[in-house]
């Protein structure tokens, strides 16, 4: 038993070492990646399912590492967040995505751009200045910029969060609550947060039309959003049945593989053509 205990300990400590080493490796590589511009953005169309028209995009970061290839955001965003590197990376994302939106605007195409904000960025005292700076430099009218926040970022110091939200709104920027329904619920706060859009989390959408509970929850979220005068966007829509369910329940803006995966800017016109042809 003793030997086994020792082995177990050894096993876990090895695992921990491996995890800690990987974190350290990614942290170092992130610093290099920033300097060497290894990041780029993909854009996932948000589509009005009544007209098949693109109405906006979500910007999603991509990292092409010289040795590792593509490292997914779930692997490096939490480390960027923990180390604070997300503030620099996030500012780059904001600038790049606003430039993109301004190009689309000038081409007369849909130009709403949704950008994920991390908790660290949201709490950053410099955020308002950074946003104002980027809007000024890129010349993007603020109304085209939508920032996505999660419920958990707004809990904790609710008063400070509301204050920060108001300051962002004063710039003319729109606010979305991402992954709605997955956080520990802020239903009672929802009315106090000056937000514009709710994004129904993929976890509620993915088992439609098999899971009746998820259908009830999704319909309830949509109805509640409408009562509160919020727009609603469904994410993770992969099938026609899901799209039709959402449309029947008055959710018209949808995002997901059913329409398009996130793609590079130059591939968006292909997606547009495909949607127009359907
Ligand atoms: P998220 O904000 O919830 O983004 C949606 C994720 O779902 C994206 O994964 C997207 O590629 C994926 N997705 C879109 N449609 C579908 C679908 O129909 N089915 C399925 N199964 N998945 C779909 P991605 O790009 O790997 O990003 C993962 C997470 O990383 C994001 O979740 C977001 O939390 C974070 N993230 C991505 N880019 C950024 C960024 O620039 N800044 C920050 N702070 N976080 C980011
Ligand atoms: Ca998002
Ligand atoms: Ca989401
Ligand atoms: Ca998510």
Automatic annotation (TrEMBL):
It comes from the Bacteria. Residues 23-276 form the EAL domain. This is cyclic-guanylate-specific phosphodiesterase. The chain holds residues 713 to 990 of 990 of the full protein.
């Amino acid at each position: 038993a003793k030997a086994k205990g020792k082995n177990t300990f050894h096993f876990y400590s090895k695992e921990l070492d491996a995890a800690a080493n990987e974190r350290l490796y990614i942290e170092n590589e992130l610093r290099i990646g920033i300097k060497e511009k290894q990041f780029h953005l993909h854009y996932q169309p948000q589509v009005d399912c009544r007209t098949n028209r693109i109405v906006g995009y979500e910007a999603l970061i991509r990292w092409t590492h010289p040795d590792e290839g593509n490292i997914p955001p779930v692997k490096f965003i939490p480390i960027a967040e923990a180390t604070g590197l997300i503030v620099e990376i996030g500012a780059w994302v904001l600038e790049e995505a606003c430039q993109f939106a301004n190009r689309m605007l000038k081409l007369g195409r849909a130009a709403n751009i949704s950008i994920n904000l991390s908790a660290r960025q949201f709490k950053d005292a410099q955020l308002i200045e950074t946003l104002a700076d980027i809007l000024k430099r890129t010349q993007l009218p603020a109304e085209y910029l939508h920032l996505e926040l999660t419920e958990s970022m707004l809990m904790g110091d609710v008063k400070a969060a509301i204050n920060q939200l108001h300051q962002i709104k004063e710039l003319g920027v729109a606010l979305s609550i991402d992954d709605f329904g997955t956080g520990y619920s802020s239903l009672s706060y929802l009315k106090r947060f000056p937000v514009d859009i709710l994004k129904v989390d993929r976890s509620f959408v993915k088992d439609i039309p098999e899971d009746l509970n998820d259908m009830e929850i999704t319909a309830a979220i949509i109805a509640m959003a409408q009562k509160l005068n919020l727009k609603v966007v469904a994410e993770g829509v992969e099938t026609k049945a899901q799209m039709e369910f959402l449309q029947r329940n008055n959710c018209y803006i949808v995002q997901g593989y059913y329409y398009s995966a996130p793609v590079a800017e130059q591939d968006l016109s292909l997606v547009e053509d495909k949607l127009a042809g359907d």
